[in-house]
Design brief:
The chain has 303 residues and is of the alpha+beta class. It has 10 helices and 16 strands. The radius of gyration is 20 Å and the shape is elongated.
Length: 303
């Protein structure tokens, strides 16, 4: 029922392309899919992207967020019935626990928090994690910190230029070097996965690069575009890019020119250990562009 699933996601009030099966299935070998389809009077009414992890259902372990994907007809009363039915189904299937990460409100094309009410009323869910991201509202931007404005001016004076690019290999190497040196980590996506996903979603997954005066790439960001949000999925720069403040100019281009038609610009999370640790240096940089807090939450309940 892949086609029906994808069509419902596209027409839903809170779904994004991350729930399209062409995105979800790129790492199908790593997650035991247990996604659910909810029907009402024979018609598809809601979706739950999810995977099985032993006796736990996770919505969804391989995505930034999960949660019930709903059509515009879903009401609060409907959501109570749906979660009761979902819980009964999961119990019968042998699950004992649910981990649930709802779609943050900035991604919703219409208000879609009926699921949060159902978690309270039907599931007796516990709020177990809260991570903070940093977001800009395009219609009411806050002023930049002086350090960010100065950096953008210095980058422009040094001959830095910004352009959209398909050179994912160069960007991924920059990103991998950054994560290895700073944290001893590797990117979540491999270069091949980034290129695969960009090929499947060229309008939604896009890359902007910063180049020095010799056209050498010194910084960049992969941006995930949904109708409501431009989400900076990855950000990286070289040592020269940092010295030349390339990212300040890059985000000036993205926020103030290239992506002004998207209501929200989301820089992504600045927390570790499920929100227990705040990376103050990282979030300060994002707040310097006028971004402020949006929370990505996790709930759990026993069945």
């Amino acid at each position: 029922m892949r086609a029906a699933w994808n069509q419902f996601v596209a027409q839903s009030k809170n779904g994004t392309f991350l729930f399209d099966r062409d995105y979800m299935d790129y790492h199908a070998d790593r997650f035991a899919d247990f996604s659910l389809m909810v029907f009402r009077r024979g018609r598809l009414y809601a979706l739950l992207p999810a995977n099985a992890d032993g006796e736990t259902l996770v919505s969804h372990g391989g995505l930034t967020y999960g949660g019930l994907v709903m059509g515009s007809r879903v009401t609060a009363a409907d959501s109570l019935v749906m979660f009761g039915a979902i819980n009964d189904y999961l119990r019968a299937a042998g699950f004992r626990r649910v981990v649930y990460r709802p779609v943050p409100w900035i991604y919703q094309r219409q208000p879609a928090e009926e699921d949060l009410y159902a978690l309270f009323r039907v599931c007796n869910a516990r709020h177990t994690a809260r991570e903070i991201s940093s977001c800009i509202v395009q219609t009411s931007k806050l002023p930049w910190y002086r350090i960010r404005l100065s950096g953008a001016k210095q980058a422009a004076a040094a001959g830095i230029s910004i352009a959209e690019s398909d050179d994912y290999a160069a960007f991924w190497q920059m990103l991998a070097d950054n994560l290895r040196v700073k944290y001893g980590l590797r990117p979540v996506h491999t270069q091949e996965e980034l290129e695969l996903l960009h090929g499947r979603f060229p309008a939604q997954i896009r890359l902007w690069m910063a180049y020095d005066a010799q056209r050498v790439p010194v910084g960049g960001s992969v941006v995930y575009l949904t109708p409501q949000v431009a989400h900076s999925q990855y950000i990286a720069s070289t040592p020269d890019g940092k010295r030349l403040h390339a990212l300040d100019l890059l985000f000036d281009e993205l926020i103030n020119r290239a992506l002004t038609d998207v209501p929200f610009f989301d820089f992504g999370k600045s927390t570790e250990e499920h929100g227990e640790e705040l990376n103050e240096q990282l979030i300060y940089q994002k707040e310097g562009f006028g971004a402020r807090g949006i929370c990505y939450d996790t709930y759990e309940w026993t069945l």
